[in-house]
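Here is an idea for our session: we take a single protein and study its fold together. To get us started, please write out a protein record for me. Once you have written the record down, we can walk along the chain together.
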Amino acid sequence: MMTDRFNRIKRAVNLENQDRIPVVLEYSSFASNITRTPICEFIGSPAKATEIMIQAYKMIGEADAINYGSFFPYGLNSDTR
């Protein structure tokens, strides 16, 4: 199944014919929204965000890939001191 999904995306990138257009879910705020999780909870914990994204994936069903919207609070800091 994983190979089918990967090949579908690969064929789309190469502009080849295929069975259907691949579905790639963008998960930043989508997962938070569909699970009715406040965005502050979603971005406040990488572990919680991962849990919510898995829950949202199961709610949606078959997708070919996800654009993993992870949040690492320390990586958001622009202070370079």
The first strand starts at residue 24 and ends at 26. The chain has a mean pLDDT of 81.
